[in-house]
Each structure stands twice: as structure tokens, then as C-alpha cells.
Amino acid sequence: MLAHPDETTLYREGTFIPEPTVADFEVLMRRPELFAVAGSHMSPGRTAVVERIAKGLSVEPATVPVVRALFRIVKGLPEFARSTMKLTPTTIAMRQAFATAKSPERFLFSELPRALGAEPLATEGLDQASLDTFFTFLNHSLQEWSRATPTMIDSLVTTPS
Around 92, how many Cα atoms within 13 Å sit in the side-chain half-sphere? Predict the structure, then answer.
């Protein structure tokens, strides 16, 4: 994992661990049978997706670093944003895709686009219109999700008591 951090992922009981912590490694030392390590390979047709997200998040243009950066953004959201139902159905579906991600590739190229109401991103021949649609939906939902807590606070401040 240290030799190839941009291509290697850790799984605990089949669930993707975006950024393993000390606690994960402590459990790994005691119960290695619960864990699996997998490699990640990006098909050439999906390079445009990864490169565009990587540029926006200032990370290496590879699937694993991009997915890890997206998960860091989500992890940094306040608890209210991670649990409120005062979001559009699309943003709630996106939040669920983050919560149930099983692998970086499936999450980024299949589960996330489906949650956003777009088609899964093809391994080959991804057209610009599909790419633009995916990013429009992704940006809209991420912005809505990140504004959930400030919007709630503003509504409490402006509501007369």
C-alpha cells in the first residue's frame, strides 16, 4: 500500500476504506481475515473523468486519490449535513452512494453517476455530453450538500421567535 498508494485500496469485510486509520490497522493486526487489499486500474476511456476531478481537487490524476479526496470532502461536512433529509432526492441518493461505496471504481464510475441521475460512465468512448452532464449534476449536489448546514442556520437566525 505504501509502494503504490494511488493504485491500492483496503477493504474491511468487503467495505471500501477510503483512508485507513490507525484503528483500522490495529484491527488488521488482530483480525487479518477481515481485510482484503486490491489494486485499482483505470481504463483509458475514463481518464477524462479522473483528470477533471483531480485538477479541481488538486490531487494525483488516478482513481484512488480522486475518490479519497471526495471522501475527505464528505467527511469534513458537519454531522447535520450528513444526516439531514432537507436535501433534494438526488443529493440524498449521492450521500447514500458515499455511505455504501464498495470499491473506488464502482463508486466513481457507476454508483455515483446513477445516484446523480446520469448513466454510468463508460469504459470506452465517453462522449463530452455525458461527461458534462455528470459534472453538472455532481457539482450541483456537492454544493447543495455543503450548504445544508449554513442554510439551516440561516433559517433559524432569520426566523422570528
Answer: 7
Strand locations in 33-159 (E): 35-39
DSSP 9: E
User: For 38-65, what is each residue's pLDDT tens digit?
Assistant: 887 777 778 888 999 999 999 999 999 9
Residue reference for cell 483500522: 24
Distance set, CA 26 to CA 12, 29, 46, 50, 87 (Å) = 12, 5, 35, 32, 37
- The CA distance from 43 to 91, in Å, is 27
Residues in the chain: 161
| Cα–Cα dist 147/152, whole Å | 8
